[in-house]
UniProtKB/TrEMBL annotation:
Biological process (GO), any one: amino acid metabolic process
PANTHER family: ASPARTATE CARBAMOYLTRANSFERASE (PTHR45753:SF6), ORNITHINE CARBAMOYLTRANSFERASE, MITOCHONDRIAL (PTHR45753)
Residues covered by the Aspartate/ornithine carbamoyltransferase Asp/Orn-binding domain: 153-298
Molecular function in Gene Ontology: amino acid binding; aspartate carbamoyltransferase activity
Organism phylogeny: Bacteria, Pseudomonadati, Pseudomonadota, Alphaproteobacteria, Rhodobacterales
Keywords, sorted A to Z: Pyrimidine biosynthesis, Transferase
Binding positions (L-aspartate): K82, R165, R219
GO CC term, one of those recorded: cytosol
Protein name: Aspartate carbamoyltransferase
Binding partners and assembly: Heterododecamer (2C3:3R2) of six catalytic PyrB chains organized as two trimers (C3), and six regulatory PyrI chains organized as three dimers (R2).
Gene name tied to this protein: pyrB
EC number: 2.1.3.2
SUPFAM superfamilies attached to this UniProt entry: Aspartate/ornithine carbamoyltransferase
Amino acid sequence: HRHLLGIENLSQADITAILDLADTFADLNRQADKHADALAGLTQINMFFENSTRTQASFEIAGKRLGADVMNMAMQASSIKKGETLIDTAMTLNAMHPDLLVVRHPQSGAVDLLAQKVNCAVLNAGDGRHEHPTQALLDALTIRRAKGRLHRLSVAICGDIAHSRVARSNIMLLGKMENRIRLIAPPTLMPAGIGDFGVEVFDNMEEGLRDVDVVMMLRLQKERMDGGFIPSEREYYHRYGLDADKLAHAKPDAIVMHPGPMNRGVEIDGTLADDINRSVIQDQVEMGVAVRMAAMDLLARNLRARVLQPV
Ligand code: CP
């Protein structure tokens, strides 16, 4: 592959290859010396048009650990503010010969569009409600390490499915790896027709969580609700917030996940989120660096292979 734009374009073999390489980087990241030279000589530009803590920090750390020259565009201070378009901004940076462009954008499809205009490899760091492929890959690696496998698991994805690129990418990845997926959400936050994608749909946590291996919680993404239905946080927590009582319906060894940023007391009980016997939320963050190292390493190998191809 030339770019990493979504899980949609990846095969089961692609996913396994990324996770296997990420496993080796996860080991490296626990060493005193965390450096490798897979991206030495390459230039990585991070363009985040939407707020981020985990994704931006981990892409920057990943690039630096692999020896790339990493530049973070401060989008708030860029000429976007003077009316320059996304494509003109990308073309301008493209003229400086970057090798890897990491892009987050509030509009679904913006990253795909940008990828058609530049010569370098583009990685989607989250576009609107469309895809967040490295999030799904880091979730998959976390599940595989915790459960010892990534197939024939029962996974519940709970909360604001309708506005979630994390849910979309995870539904595709977990489906490709042959897991059972249960979606739990209030009807107003469940996309219409989602049942056609081979998932089971519930509007009740107790039923939806029954005997699952993995519980994945999602934040209410108010920034994408366009002034429409925004549930009362109190009521939402009562019905859909994950606490020990609701988790008791899952398997006794079920793990609890959350992509972050989390709102304690809205979609998840803070004590449960911190319970290292059940919660793998910090493991997800750790695996985020390893997965992003693997994704950029594999794309860089393709870049180098293309440069070496006779014309
Ligand atoms: N999970 C995630 O994408 O977090 P950030 O928005 O902080 O990057």
